[in-house]
Amino acid sequence: MKHVSVKPEKQVSMREAKNRLPAIVRAVEAGERVVITRNGKPVVELVPHVRKGGIDFEGFRRWKEENGIDQIVGPIPDDFDDPLPEDFLISPSL
């Protein structure tokens, strides 16, 4: 099993965080993890933000191609969102 080295987290009090917020944010941006404490107890952990990728349209296109899918949704009629008749849910459809 490979040993992974993790930086020890830095702890600061709520008061120190309030007084030194810009410096703490810079440390977090540089990759540090900072725990803010209240009365010596951890309350908040600041970690660097990780941007999520979003939709992989090219991957979706490949998946559709690999699975023989032309389209996900069929044609939608023009009257799709027109109001339904008032008795639509009451009258039996035979």
Give a short overview.
By secondary structure, the protein is of the alpha+beta class.
Share in β-strands: 15-25%
Gyration radius from CA atoms, angstroms? 27 Å
Order of helices and strands: EHHEEH
Oligomer: single chain
Shape: elongated
Distance between the termini: 67 Å
Stretches where pLDDT is under 50 for at least 5 consecutive residues are none
Major sheet, described briefly?
3 strands, mixed
Q: Any idea of the CATH class of the domain at 10-46?
A: Alpha Beta
Coarse structural class: alpha+beta
Layout of helices and strands, plus pairs?
Elements: E1 10-13, H1 14-19, H2 21-29, E2 34-38, E3 41-46, H3 57-66
Parallel strand pairs: 1-2
Antiparallel strand pairs: 2-3
Verbal overview:
This protein is of the alpha+beta class and 94 residues long. It has a domain of 37 residues: YefM-like fold (3-Layer(aba) Sandwich), CATH 3.40.1620. Helices cover 27% and strands 16% of the residues. The protein contains 3 helices and 3 strands. The chain has a 3-stranded mixed sheet with strand order 1-2-3. A hairpin with a 2-residue loop joins strand 2 and strand 3. The mean pLDDT is 86.
